[in-house]
Specification:
By secondary structure, this protein is of the alpha+beta class. 48% of the residues lie in helices and 16% in strands. Strands 1, 2, 3, 4, 5 and 6 form a six-stranded mixed sheet that branches. It has a five-stranded mixed sheet with strand order 12-16-14-15-13, with no helix packed on it. A four-stranded antiparallel sheet has the order 18-19-17-20, with helices on one face. A hairpin with a 5-residue loop joins strand 7 and strand 8 (416-420).
């Protein structure tokens, strides 16, 4: 059955209460009567944003929720949350309605104050998604979100006939807010009864001419289309039972005008090419049943040529599976039929193929994948709503699970900034702008001065107090002080100090460079040419990089030899010999010697390396900084040989890496996907999970250090990974 909103005479509160006799017992209707009396006594001449009296506005909002069979507390809260600020006194509400209902009323009122942020949304741009996430995060009880959606629906209904330019301006603003913020949220949460009306009304107010054209082409009232769908569903159910198809679920809905317009624009179709203006969905237990149902549908109604898609045999790129067909239904009207199994439907609604994701046109980035998982979880929770005996249990599930790892705070201009849970005002400053963080000396939260280590909460407005000149304190990096919690902010502080040490690094780098020049007996050479060869704009930049360790001694030596050492003084290894050398290592300039990689340090190109002569095993290749080599006794250093990398195109090298992370399901799978994408073979895996923390050790086969570096960089960005390093 298609759900219908209750038609309400706004001022007839008694008639409305009487109409709820079948939905709510007498005790619950007494609670609604008390809420109505409180509203009537307190609202006086107050008005809603459509300029209508507050009483019928709140009554209409409550009626929408009652028609959707929400619990009595939600309906009562919808009546009370519209009270003027002076009437929302905590002690009064608790004494009259109890703590649970008071918390719901205050939560809905807090969410109502969010409307003024839409002005900032228009000014900033790109803030719709952040505001939707913030709205959910601010709600301690998910029911307040539904109250807000119902209230916006009622507000758009009241804007139907503006009588002044001011009202028209308010109507367009409210419609823009609904289109950007609330209609997508209703879509994500699966509140179809409100989704279609929010989209249609906002489309009607923002694009009146286009809306009228489509409405004229439909030539049907929505109630008539809903009646048509109900007759189709009844006929199809009876036919499927007669055909011996048991356990099928048959549902349907008429496509609303805003959705038709969106499809016409997205796929560049004319109205006559939109075949799913009326649509039916059939869910069955098994895949074979899908094709059985398809045969029944095609025998019942004439198929429309070219309008059949088999997404079961050939799923969409996001994994979506279903059969789609269009037929000429009763009265000669086009009808779309979707057929899938219950498992396919679950994946389409909750999994990676979720309808709302591609309907919004969102390409999920790594940073967005978390919110998608949370919305999928929330929709599953709402599907269980009828099974949860106590509405407070639903609220508790919502509080405990959703957005625990994020907070959403506001700049003084109203821009939403998402931060990791536990983030401080200083983290906020660095998230807004690096320079703001460097010059931060204090913070105000909601107008009150707070210490810089105070954790922020969702919905707070943060103002940063700065000095004209200055920089960060090294104390900010002290984890025991808790001033900085986010990795991004800490890295910005470290980068600042790194830049401040530039002069020291230049001096140290120049000393190391002079030492290498002396070793090669190079005097009076043009060092600017060396800087250019190593892709640095100036000699000081090269020296700073050497001093910081960004340019290693091996890289510097090769550049000096290639740029300044005459060819006749270089090791006599022919080009053909280097080209044909597949052993991977040149020892004293020669290839083809018996070599093996040391297991203690596992060298790989382009690590600086050294050879060590062993008895009966040829030459063992170590990293030049290997502790075994550095602590070699003096009497054994004579067995060291110069070594360098030759051609190793077809050779791989074993290296050990270590990852530490917050333990979670799917962590190893995410790491494995990156390994597969980088084409890295895993030789050994050792994992240890303890107290929600995971420590993983891998032995990988890589072609060179560049391949390993790419993997470590990508692994470090996996959700929950703290460190990814080579051992």
């Amino acid at each position: 059955m298609v759900a219908h909103a209750l038609t309400l005479a706004p001022n007839d509160a008694e008639s409305w209460l009487a109409s709820l006799e079948d939905s709510y017992p007498d005790e619950q209707r007494q609670l609604l009567k008390l809420a109505l009396e409180t509203l009537a006594n307190e609202c006086c001449e107050s008005q809603a944003d459509a300029g209508k009296p507050l009483l019928p506005h709140a009554l209409g909002t409550a009626a929408i929720l009652a028609a959707m069979r929400f619990d009595v507390e939600t309906v009562a809260a919808a009546l009370l949350c519209g009270l003027p600020e002076k009437a929302l006194k905590h002690e009064t509400l608790v004494g009259r309605f109890g703590a649970h209902l008071t918390a719901l009323v205050e939560g809905a009122a807090k969410l109502g104050r969010m409307d003024h942020l839409f002005t900032a949304l228009n000014a900033e741009g790109g803030q719709s998604e952040a505001l939707r996430q913030m709205l959910l995060a601010m709600a301690d009880d998910i029911r307040v979100v539904f109250i807000k959606l119902a209230e916006r629906t009622q507000a758009l209904r009241e804007f139907a006939n503006p009588v002044a330019d001011k009202e028209e301006s308010q109507r367009r603003k409210a419609a823009s807010e609904v289109r950007e913020l609330y209609a997508p949220l209703a879509n994500r949460l699966g509140v179809w009864q409100l989704k279609w009306e929010l989209e249609d009304l906002s489309c009607r107010y923002l694009e009146p001419e286009t809306y009228r054209q489509i409405a004229k082409q439909l030539d049907e009232r929505r109630l008539d289309r809903e009646w048509y769908i109900e007759q189709v569903l009844k006929h199809l159910r009876e036919t499927l039972i007669a055909a011996g198809i048991d356990g099928a679920s048959v549902t349907g809905r008429p496509k609303h005008i805003a959705s038709i317009l969106a499809k016409m624009g997205k796929k560049r179709l004319s109205f006559d090419e939109v075949y799913d203006v009326r649509a039916v969905r059939v869910l069955v237990p098994e895949v074979k049943d899908c094709f059985h149902v398809l045969g029944v549908v095609h025998s019942l109604w004439q198929p429309i040529p070219g309008q059949f898609d088999d997404y079961i045999s050939r799923p969409k790129g996001n994994g979506y599976k279903s059969l789609h067909t269009a037929v000429v239904g009763p009265e000669g009207k086009a009808l779309e039929v979707q057929i899938r199994t219950f498992d396919m439907h679950q994946e389409a609604e909750m999994g990676v193929a979720a309808h709302w994701r591609y309907k919004e046109g969102a390409q999920a980035t790594a940073s967005q994948s978390g919110i998608q998982d949370k919305i999928a979880w929330l929709r599953q929770l709402l599907a269980w709503k009828q099974e949860l005996a106590d509405s407070h249990e639903l609220a508790q599930h919502f509080r405990n699970e959703l957005f625990q790892d994020e907070v959403f705070v506001l700049t003084p201009q109203g821009k939403v900034v998402a931060l990791t849970s536990g983030a401080t005002p200083l983290d906020f400053a660095y998230a807004v702008h690096t320079e703001l963080g460097h010059r931060c000396r204090g913070a105000k939260v909601d107008g009150a001065l707070v210490p810089l280590d105070r954790p922020l909460a969702t919905g707070q407005r943060v103002e940063i107090l700065t000095v004209k000149q200055g920089g960060p304190s090294r104390d900010w990096l002290n984890p025991h002080l808790g001033v900085l919690k986010t990795h991004r902010a800490r890295s910005k502080v470290r980068q600042w100090f790194k830049q401040q040490d530039h002069d020291t690094h230049v001096q140290e780098g120049r000393e190391l460079l002079d030492r290498e020049l002396h070793r090669f007996n190079l005097n009076n050479v043009n060092l600017d040419k060396l800087a250019t060869r190593l892709k640095f704009p100036a000699l000081d930049d090269l020296c700073a990089a050497i001093g910081r360790g960004d340019v290693g001694s091996g890289q510097l030596d090769r550049a000096l030899q290639d740029e300044f050492v005459p060819a006749q003084e270089k090791p006599l290894v022919s080009a053909s010999k280097r080209k044909n050398d597949v052993g991977g290592v040149l020892v004293e300039g020669e290839s083809g010697l018996l070599t093996q990689m040391a297991g203690c340090c596992k060298p790989a190109p382009p690590d600086p390396i050294v050879g060590f002569t062993t008895q009966g095993h040829g030459v063992t290749i170590h990293r030049a900084d290997c502790p075994v080599i550095l602590h070699l006794p003096a009497d054994r250093k004579a067995r060291l040989l110069q070594a360098s990398w030759g051609g190793q195109d077809s050779q791989v090298f074993a290296v050990d890496i270590e990852l530490t992370a917050q333990d979670r399901p799917g962590l190893l799978k995410d790491i494995g996907e990156i390994l597969a994408q980088e084409k890295i073979n895993v030789v050994r895996v050792n994992t240890l999970s303890q107290h929600d923390s995971a420590r993983m050790e891998f032995t990988l086969e890589v072609k060179d250090i560049a391949q390993l570096t790419r993997f470590l960089a990508r692994a470090g960005h996996i959700r929950g990974v703290h460190t990814a390093r080579r051992k």
